[in-house]
Write a structure and sequence with these properties.
Number of domains: 4
Radius of gyration: 26 Å
Number of helices: 9
Largest sheet: 7 strands, antiparallel
Number of strands: 32
Oligomer: single chain
Shape: globular
Distance between the termini: 54 Å
CATH class of the largest domain: Mainly Beta
């Protein structure tokens, strides 16, 4: 046995046993039975575990494909609501689920939120008035480092498994280079593998304290992340009310006053630093600038000393009422500056997709949130999401992330613009089967002649 596993086994033994000191020595109380704790927790949660098998549409390889993926979920109410990850359920055209009784059910999507990677689904009952077994949420705010946990799920498509570990960190921030900026995470060393996504992280009382999402097994051993249960409960409430998460947008991008990631330290004891302001945003329109320090919103003080403080501030800004003016107070050159910002509804995180099948590439709408680099070049438009190899687009020299400016000499800005032109060109049997496409590539214009006489894929 490896040394690390011996140490882990000893730690778990002491965690479950309890101990006290007698005359300077160590006296063990009667050990709690490890298998009993595991069995009791399993008995509460295992019946609520869902093996999720979505069939979804994928556009990334230059053509629309149907792909079956695997994930996990956990039922949270007897009427069949269950939680999984957004990345498991997104773009699904059909979702099949296998439950504890080994019966297969279909599920319907209630809500999806890519920015917390959460999804709420509902099982379609086989019998009328059917009740489902469900698991209860625990309070993630009470979780502590070193606490014993279990990750349940269906790794690699294998139904129902448990991995054991401890909570390594209760407030891990991973929002530097990801879209997950609205909450911190529970870090655990319990194994979370592909297929575990959406399954529950469970404490020894058998309550859900997190939803497993990210495992970094291929990057760093023993690092995995779960969405805290209190965040899940809050998002579920929004899904049940609106079938989505409604957020406001001010355009203010935040940075901690003490940012050890970038070694940036702002000499202020209050507020949060404005890192930058999105162009044409409510914040920019009233003159907010990078370097300002936001100290209050609607009279409530703001504190963003460390990166772990940022998600709560972002959530507060997102929960403002759209189109209702709000007083913001900033520090600029050590002087207070009061401005009124009217937040707007945040657009959807990700744009629509379309497959130009005879031309062998797929397109997607530019979004300021999911494709900010392309949005910087062109605020409104569509870009090439994927190019099929071999294919007509590849032969013409078109590349992924090219922004399409014109097709056949006509400007295009939306998916509908492209659909309309594509359909009319394809249906025109009299024209030569070539089309001129103008794109922006890294900001520079490029003309490509696409010859679509060749047939590379036909259904």
């Amino acid at each position: 046995m490896k040394k690390g596993y011996v140490i882990s086994a000893v730690l778990i033994f002491f965690l479950l046993s309890g101990c006290s000191s007698i005359r300077g020595g160590l006296h063990l109380k009667k050990p709690k039975d490890f298998e009993t704790i595991l069995t009791n927790a399993k008995r509460k949660v295992f019946p609520a575990l869902v093996f999720v098998k979505p069939i979804r549409e994928e556009f990334g390889e230059g053509e629309k494909k149907h792909q079956e993926v695997f994930g996990s979920g956990v039922i949270i109410s007897d009427d069949g609501y269950f939680v999984t990850n957004n990345h498991v359920a997104e773009k699904a055209i059909q979702i099949l689920c296998v439950l504890y009784d080994k019966n297969q059910y279909t599920a319907e999507v209630v809500g999806l939120d890519p920015e917390t990677d959460l999804a709420l689904l509902k099982l379609v009952p086989i019998k009328s008035n059917q009740k489902f077994p469900y698991a209860e949420f625990g309070d993630s705010d009470k979780v502590e480092e070193g606490q014993f946990v279990m990750a349940l799920g269906s790794p690699f498509g294998f139904t129902r498994s448990i991995s054991l570990g401890i909570v390594s960190n209760v407030n891990r921030y991973i929002g530097f280079n990801t879209q997950y900026k609205y909450n911190t995470w529970l870090q655990t060393d319990a194994a979370i593998n592909p297929g575990n996504s959406g399954g529950p992280l469970v404490n020894k009382e058998g309550k859900i304290i997190g939803i497993n999402t990210l495992g970094l097994g291929f990057i760093a051993e023993g690092m995995a992340f779960s969405i805290p249960s209190n965040v899940v409960v809050k998002i579920v409430e929004k899904f049940k009310k609106d079938h989505k998460v409604i957020r406001c947008w001010t355009g203010l991008n935040l940075q901690a006053l003490k940012d050890f990631q970038t070694n940036t330290f702002t000499p202020s004891e209050k507020g949060v630093l404005i890192q930058n302001v999105d162009s044409d945003s409510p914040g920019e329109k009233v003159g907010v600038k990078a370097g300002d320090i936001l100290i209050s919103v609607n009279g409530a003080p703001i504190t963003g000393m460390f990166v772990e403080d940022l998600p709560a501030i972002r959530w507060e800004l997102a929960d403002l009422i759209p189109d209702k003016p709000v007083e913001f107070v900033f520090l600029r050159d050590n002087k207070e500056l009061k401005v009124t910002i009217t937040p707007t509804l945040k657009e959807k995180f990700e744009g629509e997709d379309f497959d130009l099948r005879k031309w062998n590439f797929t397109i997607k709408e530019i979004s300021k949130f999911s494709t900010p680099d392309l949005y910087f070049i062109q605020k409104k438009g569509i870009f090439i999401q994927g190019v099929r190899y071999p294919g007509n687009a590849a032969d013409a020299g078109l590349q992924k992330n090219d922004i399409i400016v014109k097709i056949d000499g006509k400007e295009v800005y939306t998916i509908e613009d492209v659909k309309s032109l594509y359909d009319s060109i394809i249906k025109d049997e009299q024209r030569e089967k070539k089309v001129l496409i103008e794109v922006l590539r890294r900001g520079y214009s490029k003309l490509c002649v696409l010859d679509y006489r060749h047939i590379y894929n036909e259904e």
